[in-house]
Design goal:
Elements: E1 8-17, E2 20-30, E3 35-39, H1 46-54, E4 61-66, E5 69-70, H2 76-82, E6 84-87, H3 99-106, H4 116-125, H5 127-131, H6 142-154, E7 160-164, H7 172-187, E8 191-196, H8 199-205, E9 208-213, E10 216-222, H9 223-228, H10 230-237
Parallel strand pairs: 3-8, 3-9, 6-7, 7-8
Antiparallel strand pairs: 1-2, 1-4, 4-5, 9-10
């Protein structure tokens, strides 16, 4: 019996900015319910990988599949409707809007009649958001805004949640709390792809990991194996 197809799959993807070859033959997969981290330093190609998955940029070569459908040339809106969601770098909450309004924005593609279950789910994961539902998002702390950004993404009931540098800009104690929340969301059954520079924390909660260097996947494997291989981590992650 053959293994099921991955939820997300990139096959031999080449992405360019003009004549600059950014992603070079990238192969990457995320299985249903799996937590995968994509690691690498600055200018390694992590953000371009996310943009390629979301359809913000199109690969010149290669194939992107999601949920069994080839989406290589499909627009971003189609991908979101199919079940992709993102928690962007630096959270990017709608500061002048309330917590509740931010959550509603995350569900803009869904009928309001269907949202009761999603609100219950998000408030169950993040009770603080219920307490602060009338508060302006811009007045929340960095850690609270991270919760809100995750809650907003979950309101779309995604099949795969993308996270772009969730530890960026957070104090060390909040980084630990943020990854505890990520683990909690994953345990609730959401597949996740986390793009990160913080190898130690992200590998400690992931199922598998990939390491990008100058646009190429140079390492991949079980997260535990990557975490324990100090020589490889020092060579490609500087740690």
């Amino acid at each position: 019996m053959s293994a099921p197809a991955p939820l997300l799959q990139l096959e031999a993807v080449d992405t360019y900015y003009g004549q600059i070859h950014i992603l070079q033959g990238v192969n990457l997969a995320v299985g249903d319910g799996e937590l995968v981290c994509l690691l690498g330093g600055n200018a390694s190609g992590k953000s371009t990988t996310l943009k390629t998955i979301l359809g913000i940029v199109s690969p010149r070569n290669g194939v992107v599949r999601f949920g069994g459908e080839e989406i290589t040339r499909r627009p971003t809106a189609h991908r979101i409707a199919r079940g992709l969601a993102i928690v962007p770098e630096n959270r990017r909450v709608f500061a002048p809007m309330s917590v509740l309004e931010n959550l509603e924005m995350g569900a803009y593609l869904r009928p309001k009649a269907d949202l009761k279950e999603e609100f219950e789910r998000v408030y169950g994961l993040f009770p603080l958001l219920y307490e602060r539902r009338k508060q302006l998002a811009g007045t929340l702390s960095g850690g609270e805004q991270q919760m809100l950004a995750m809650g907003r993404a979950l309101m779309s009931k995604p099949k795969l949640l993308l996270m772009d540098e969730p530890s960026m800009g957070l104090a060390p104690i909040l980084v630990e709390r943020s990854f505890e929340i990520i683990q909690q969301v994953h345990q609730a059954g959401v597949a996740m792809l986390i793009v990160e520079q913080n190898a130690n924390v992200s590998l400690s909660i992931a199922d598998r990991g990939y390491v990008l260097s100058t646009g190429r996947v140079v390492l991949e494997g079980k997260a535990k194996d990557l975490l324990e291989d100090e020589d490889l981590r020092k060579a490609y992650l500087g740690r």
